[in-house]
What does this fold into?
Amino acid sequence: MSQSLFEARVPIHPRSVSGRFRNLKTGILVLAYGVFFLLPWLRWERETGPSQAVLFDIPNRQFYLFDLIVFAQDIFWLAGLLMIAALMLFFVTGLAGRVFCGYFCFQTLWTDVYMFLERRIQGERPARLRLAKQPWNAEKVLKLGATHASWLLVAFATGLGFVLYWADAPSMVVAFFTGEAANAAYITAGLLTLTTYTFAGLAREQVCTYMCPYARFQSVMFDRDTLIVSYDQERGEGPAGRAKPSRDLKTREERQKAGVGDCIDCGYCVQVCPTGIDIRDGLQIQCIHCALCIDACDQIMDKQGWPRGLIRYTSESALEGKKTRFLKLKTVGYGAAILVVTVLLALSIANRPDLDASVSQVRQPLFVQMADGSTQNSYEIALNNKTQHRLDLEIDVVGLEGALLDLGRVQEIVLDPSQRTTVLARVRYHAEPGDPARLPIGFEIRDRDGAMDPVRIDSQLSLRP
Amino acid sequence: MSTNEKPSKKPGEVETTGHVWDSNLQEYNNPLPRWWLWGFYATVVFTVVYWILFPAWPIGGTFTKGLNTITFMDDGEEVTTHWNTRSLLARDMQTGRHAVRQREMLERVGAMEYDEILADVDAMSFVNAYAKGSFGTWCAACHQTGGAGVIGLYPNLRNDQWKWGGTVAQIEETLVLGRNGYMPGYRESLNSEQLDQVASYVLSMNGFDLDADAVAAGAEIFNGYLGGCYQCHGMDAQGLASLGAPNLSNNLWALVDVPGAANDEERVRRVAAFVHDGVQRVMPAFADRLSETEIKVLTAYVHSLGGGQ
It folds into this structure.
């Protein structure tokens, strides 16, 4: 008979801890929550368009990011952004392990908040363990009920907070609670409420251990010089292993004589671990490098009056007594790649033309002969004003001597901000005997007031099939 | 058949159903993953809700209609019916965001004069987008999708050759009333030599270098009593829009495939054959089939295709 592949979750009740890394994590958490929940409420002055600083306007296909307006055509910037994000992840992982997991991942952040609520309502680890064991009574129902209610509340706030990025925040909140909002808003908020509650409340470390792909591939990006949260086994355990500070093993001298190390086997590092592992067993896939065990151990070491750092950020090389090399080909390579993509993205954003112009030649038919013996091609020139002001445009055909542009009776091409239009253009040309079947031509589009740099778009003129 | 043993589970073993075939073939009793099972129950609940809201169960010749309804306009009357995709489509075509926007633009353009439409870049942008569809429905069967026509059958609307005139008023009239083009055959009045001479004359006006005597004789016939071609096409063959007589001097050929001919001899033969046979072509009237606004949009579109006057 084979072993069952299924393993029921062992509930984890982490003890709280204070210290350097806890403070850092709390700082990042407060900052992240502040940004996530408050950013949609930040107002921003624009010549035209919404007054919300960050707004992803799906119906109008425009993303507002402060003074930058991203149009649908600019969506490839997202590729640049994702590349930078991925490269940063690789870069920092090679250098300092799962920094993202431990400090920035929303699973970690939200689980942290959920654990905080849990502790405020149910008490510290021993109280929670007791509560979990005790039979169902009024106290248990009340406390567990309150916990889950508070979780649901945070989950709903998260869902609603996310929805506010996609519509005008104040009016969206009103619409949401008066039942006037679009279905998509309710579905999105509901889905996020559900997933937040499930992932941060119920699934917790299982998300990191079993579901998250990053967890897996970050682990394989470690090398011997990667800073990881590790237990200094050489210091913690002498030849006789670790031992509790019994009567004869109080001081370091006594312990070293007896062959035991500095680890007093208090288990604090295990109790504070949000993924329920023992860091003293070495590097494990479950470890999200939250560094809370460092805080726990440092506290104990302080109490013992021994130097900190029995559990610390260090590399395998350092633990073997060698020097940790930070300047590795991998780190430098990722660093360079980040730089390149960032510069390219910045250049692309900075050099975005004020006017999005494209031309397509009419292909049915490609060309016609006119009464005066010239050949005429038709074009559709699509224009999109990406500036914040009105453009008064004129179009010229360039690049071919003798080509005549005909816009019919259209005299004025005025585009309001974000406005799109299609100009129907015709070009007539008297073919010379030696002309090839296709000639390159271009259209130059200028603002009559000189408010933008001229934009040139290239096309071709067909004379024969 | 299987024999039955007591379901057993020792530590480290998977529970079996207790059925044993062929003395050692057993069946694991692995429970479904809890999340999967609850997901399955949720779909069951969803199904029941779906049955209540939407058309679901066939009952003889009819079916359960569901509680969900759709309201839409049918011939000016408000109709409320049970949920179904046809009504959903009807409602979307009436009240959907894009349908409403299209109707607004149609009304705007419909209220404008041709001069305004042709000078307004946004109106023309709309005309181009909207009329492409109408043109595809009503016109493309003959004039082809892009309006280039078919030589010998249907006129090209992309160039500036207009049989019936290329102003908006003339194009609109063509659309509303239709056109009946007719040129008589000359098989009775001209012999084959004379037909060749007329053809030579017509071709000479389009830049083809042909026998001078034949051209001169052809001019005589064209502008004289014998042929009388000038009566419709004009003394200088410039055409007459009111009769649908095309200009014969601009080397644009709608009905005779001159560009497709290999040499002068064949060109003469083709033109002569055309004059011999005569031609009658009809463009149907669209007054009864299209609304005023739609005719207006189509007129502006055809005008913009390449040679509007």
Remarks:
- Chain B has a mean pLDDT of 91.
- DSSP finds twelve helices and nine strands in chain B.
- The first strand of chain B starts at residue 3 and ends at 4.
